[in-house]
Please model this.
Amino acid sequence: MVKSSYTSFLQEIRGLIPQDRIYTDELRRLAWGTDAGFYRLIPQIVIRSNSEEEISDLLRLADRYGLPVTFRAAGTSLSGQAISDSILIVAGKHWEKYSISPDHEQITLQPGIIGQRVNEILAPYERKFAPDPASVKSAMVGGIVMNNASGMNCGTHANSDKVLLSARIVLADGTVLDTGNDISRASFEATHPDFYNRICELRDQIRANEELAARIRYKYSIKNVTGLNLLPFVRFDDPFDIIAHLMVGSEGTLAFLSQITMRTEYDYPYKASAMLYFTSIKDACRAVVAMKELSNDNASASEADRKIVKGAELLDYKSLSSVEDPVYLKYKQEVADASGLTAVLTETKARTREELEQNISVIEECLKTFSTYIPVHFTDQQEEYSKYWAIRSGIFPSVGGTRQPGTTCLIEDVAFHIEDLPEATADLQQLIARHGYDDACIYGHALEGNYHFILNQSFSTDAEVKRYEDLMNDVKTLVVDKYDGSLKAEHGTGRNMAPFVKYEWGEAAFEAMKAVKQLFDPKGLLNPGVIFNDDPQCHIKNFKPLPLMPIDEASPAEKVNKCIECGFCEVNCLSCGFTLSSRQRIVLQREISRLKQSGTDPERLSLLEKQYRYPGNQTCAGDGLCSMSCPMNINTGDLTHIIRQEILPKGSLGYKAGDFVANHFAGVKSSLRPVLSLANFGHSVLGTKAMSSITKGMHNVLGVPLWTPAMPKSYKVTSYKLQATTDMSDELQATSTMQNDSAALVACSSVARNSTADKVVYFPSCINQTMGLPKKSPVEQPLVNKMISLLQKGGYEVIFPKDMDKLCCGTIWESKGMLDIADRKAAELEAALWEASEQGKYPVLCDQSPCLHRMRETIQKMKLYEPAEFIYTFLRDKLVFTQTDRPVAVHITCSMRKMGLADTIVSLAKLCSTHVFVPEEVGCCGFAGDRGFTYPELNSYALRKLRPQIEASGITIGYSNSRTCEIGLTTNSGIPYVSIAYLVDQCTKGIDN
Model:
């Protein structure tokens, strides 16, 4: 019966939703069966929704067939609330619209916008998104609100519940209600009178029970997300306000949240932080209690605004040890027992510098009554206090990174009332130690009485599961019975705390919660098992397996085994929302690896490997940006390279072809030039429209690389006899002479023979040695010529490595999984550059940032630069810059981001133009070497948000520092992209001129 219901449901939704957004295959169901928590359920059907109308239709059909539904945004939740063994509806990438009120004090958001993106939107108006969970850079608004996730500063005064103004929701029967719209409210009251009246009845019943109403106020005076949110019944009279606020913390158990309007928060411009060290955890907590009471005398300000201390993050000694905090290491040498040392990272904010200084004085005066290990020192210098916050941020990855292979890293969170903090904190620390969690640490938002404790936990044996169960039972007793605190403060109830909701709240409150659930979801179809679960052991079932992959410890991909599947990587994964995300690739490869090692199900193994090929391997750009938002710095691209290496083992035809190319590189490049020339000839004869149509058809039918109008002509660096004109701003003309018998090829100019001139070794990337300009180009010279011209304008003598037409950094082979060949080519290049630079005497310039990134990874004994950093470092004071008023776009390549040079290329562009535009939400372009030719759909998806921004800005040209990226950018933006070197050359003259 159940199977036939799913079949019927599936048949009907295929008439409503395109097939490419409905997943029923083994691979993607498994991929979507995990979130950041430690549970796994495999959905029967996964649907990527993109509209409220679709959600309404899906819920009506699910209601008709009696099928459970779970909603999911980013999947960064920690308690098992975003997984399902039934129907999983994803509301992420297609739900990113927003609008801001004219006074910027309100913002209306769809659920798929990343929290940090909201902050970026509001930053120009000195406003911010009030909820600030640690996952704000990865979590989406829908999840933040529906879990009532908070963080370091928002406390209870500015969490989602307190800043929410109205909500637009889709109920279980498909009805859409906008609580902020008078017409929608009136319509709902007319069509759902029983629902409306029942809300009023519950409100009145709860208020009439004075003991219950008082308990609700008391419980929500601190952070609390255990169970449904009952606070709206005592805060609001209007039934629609109650309905809207019931959504907060409901974890998808009541309705689908399609839109929310929230108050924005003022973003203080002046900030200061101090790392305070105490020799006992109780003293640290007492200091926090004292600092929480500090407030200024501004009567017109809100209570939250008057609070002087905005944040106080406690770090116990194990937290400090995990990040090798230097103060802790010093203290450890001085005492026999360092377990008392506790740090409190304290922050204050102000509207003016004078107010900030006054705040600091008040805090310092307060702390005089406490003994600190080192003197109190506040700093308002971002470069200083950012180091403190980096320590705070580093605790989770540091503890997680040291866990035993095969274990997972759990983060539990509880909250105590502030007056109980000193004793409760010490009790919690002792309780964790008593259960044998020797590497566990306690840290968190002490100002709000909210702590996280990290456990490195295995669930591989019954004994380990029992140890975890016993710990949680003791935590329940401590938090609830002794201190009447919150078992879940900000991570959501989920499945993890569902058995304890009634225990924490008591009979009356729990019955009120059940009544709300019954009203909104009478059939129990919305996220069943979450918050309400009749199984008292549901929290110790359906654990997520974390099998080890057999990866060599020396391999960069070895870090993959430390992945806890938190999903923080996905915000930087360009294929997330298109095929698979970096997290999902690891999930799937773990299962494939398990099946290979166990040999238990060869048919399923074969199926997963086959289904993985396109979404997992072929559409992984391997750019590594995922590592930049991963707490463990895991680069899933390294895993993809290992997979490709297994596909092309030594001795295979593909490997032999790669080896042949490496050994005959100059000849192979020469053979490619006629192909480029033929394509250019075809373009000239057929025209752009016909050529595009023909080549697109060939790509679709035959799989040949896709030609676009941005495809360059052929080019060959044959010689370097450069004739300088009297005006160095004029173009330099290249003619031909080759010096094959010299150790280095020198570009001659009016300064080249000057023995006092600065020298640079210039290695044009192999792609720029082969590819020239496209047929319609805004510039006249190929990049190599232009680069030489610019270097000479700056007074540099240019040296080329010997036999450079045979040289390559190895990226080509690395991307294909031929890692040994890639390293061999890198070694050849290193030897040639070492000789040309006279053993590292001169800097080395490569004109392609991805190539330079690999060179820096493999070549350590020379100073290596790509164009932007070289120009900014060495040519800036040798050139006279004249800014143009023409607006320009700048694309920051993934390699520039990984090398920490994003600001450098932007700063360089700003020396040249008064209007530099960096498009928002455009990360890796997805061209990925040659994948823009072979899988152009990946490139197109990665740049889907580029063209609208370019058109809205009226920009006519863009700049970057990667030739292949520029091809894809040109194709997908509607404007030409060229190297940043062209912009610099256009806007500069030599000092002598």
Remarks:
- The first strand starts at residue 22 and ends at 23.
